[in-house]
C-alpha cells in the first residue's frame, strides 16, 4: 500500500507538488494521471526516497522508503528506462542489482525471460538498446525482487503494440496476485484499458482519486444518436418531450437528455422507422481533458 | 503472490555488487590496461635513456647514481599521467552513475546511500591500490633490470627503494578518491575532470614555496607530498636545493592519508544529502 499525506515539494519559488494526499491499495492497477509537468515524476521520486519532500510524508507499506537498507524486495520501480549505464550488458546490469539485494543470480535469467530479453539481447550492451528494449529491461529490474509494490513511470513509451498489450496484461496479472501496482501516464487512453483506480493530478495538486467508473461519470453526459428517414418530424416529437436535439445531417439527430431506450420508446409510439439508435458515452479522455484543462502547464496555441 | 523472504542486509553484498559494476564495463579494462602499459613503458624508457647516456655522465653523477636510478623507478612525468588517469577513473565511478541516471536505479535498489557509497569507495580504493602496486612494482622491476645491464640497478632492499615504490603505488588510490570526491560534489563529468586536474596537477606547479603560507599549501598537495616521499636524497643530495620550509617523510604520508580520508568522507556524505 502506498500512502501519500500532505506531500509538498518546492524548488525555489516553484511548487512542483502541493499538499498531495492519496492512497494506492493493493490488488488493482492504479493509474497516476496528469498532464506534462503535473508533478507525477516528482511524487514518484519522493515515494522512492530519491527526492526529499519539503513537507508531508510518502510511505510504502507504512514506512518511508529511505529507511529501508535494501529496496528491491519491497518496491520494484521503473522511473526512466534510460537510467542504466550504456556500457553494461542487460544481464550485468541486473546481476549487480540482484547481488546488492542478495537476490539469487538465477532470478536474473527468470526476469530476463519474462520480459523477452533472452539470448544475445541479454548479453548486448544496453547502449545499443531501443527505447522499447530499455523499457523491458527496466520492467525486468522492477520484477527482480518479486516485490509487493510496483511503480512505473510512463512505462508504455517506446513499446510496440505487441509490447503495450503485454505490459497491460502484466500489470493486471501483478495486481491479481495481490500486489500494489501504480502506473503513471499523461494519456488517459493508456490507462482506460489497464487501471481500475485513478489518481489524477494537475499542477502538483490532487484533482481526483477514485475508481475509473466514477471518473468516467464525471464527464459530459452521454449523447444518443438516432437516425430516421423522417428526421425532421422525429426532432419535433423529441423536442416536445423536453429533449435537446441537434440535427447532424438529413437523417441523423444528436440527442441529449434522454436515454436511447426513451428515444426508442417515443419513436415506437409515434411509429417512426429507425435506422440507427446508439449511445455515445463520453470518453474518459474527454473527462480527463475537461478536468485538467485548468491545470495544463504547457498549453499549445494560447497566450497566457 | 509469493514474496521472497527478506534476508538481512549485508554490507558484503554491496561490495560484491560494486565489484560487478566495475568489472562489467569494458572501459575499465581499456583504461586501466592501456594506462598501465604506457606508465611502465614511460619509466622503463627513462632507465633506458640513463643506460644509453651513462658513459657520458661525469663523476658526481656516477657517484650518486643510486639517486638517479630510483628517479627512473617512477618518473615525475609518469606520476602526472597516473594522477590524471586514476583520478579520472575514480571520478567516472561516481559521475558515470549521475550522468547516465543509473544513480536513481541504484538508490532505488539500495536506499541506504551511505552504505552504498562506502562500498563504492572501498572497492575503488582496493582496486586502485592493487593497480598502483602493480604499476609501481613493474616500473621498478623494469627500470632496475634495464640499469642492471650496466650493473647500476638498485635492489628493492636499498634504503628508500621501498618508499619510492609504495609512495608511487599509493598515489593511485589517493588520486582516485580525490576524483570520486570531486565527482560526488560536482556530478558533471567535464567540470569534474577540469577541476580535478586543476587541483591535483596544476596547483602543485603554480604554488610557490617562497612564503610560509604558500609553502604550507604547496606541501599539503598530494603531488608535492609524492615528490618529497620519493626524494631519497632529500636535504643532502648535491643536486637538490634545501627548501626554505623543509618537509618530512612523515608529513608526506599524512598528506596522502588526509586527502584520501577527506575525499572518501565527502563522497559518502555529499551523496547522502542531495536529491537525485
Q: What does it look like?
A:
The complex is a heterodimer of chains A (304) and B (276). Chain A is α/β, with parallel strands linked by helices and 304 residues long. Chain A folds into two domains: 2-218, Rossmann fold; 223-280, Alpha-Beta Plaits. Helix content of chain A is 34%, strand content 26%. Chain A is built from eleven helices and 13 strands. Chain A has helices at residues 40-47, 90-100, 106-115, 120-123, 131-143, 161-176, 188-191, 212-218, 231-240, 260-269, 284-292, and strands at 2-11, 14-24, 29-33, 55-60, 75-78, 149-153, 180-185, 197-202, 205-211, 223-227, 244-247, 252-256, 276-280. In chain A, the strands form three sheets. Chain A has a six-stranded mixed beta sheet with strand order 5-6-7-3-8-9, sandwiched between helices. Chain A has a four-stranded antiparallel beta sheet with strand order 11-12-10-13, with helices on one face. Chain A has a three-stranded antiparallel beta sheet with strand order 2-1-4, with helices on one face. In chain A, helix 2 (90-100) crosses helix 3 and helix 3 crosses helix 5 (131-143). Chain A starts with a strand and ends in a 12-residue tail after the last helix. The model of chain A has no long low-confidence stretch (mean pLDDT 91). Chain B has 276 residues and is mostly helical. Chain B has one domain. Chain B is 76% helix and 0% strand. Chain B has helices spanning 11-23, 26-53, 59-63, 65-73, 76-100, 102-109, 113-148, 161-186, 189-206, 212-219, 222-230, 249-273. In chain B, helix 8 (161-186) runs parallel beside helix 12. The interface between A and B is large, with 47 and 38 residues.
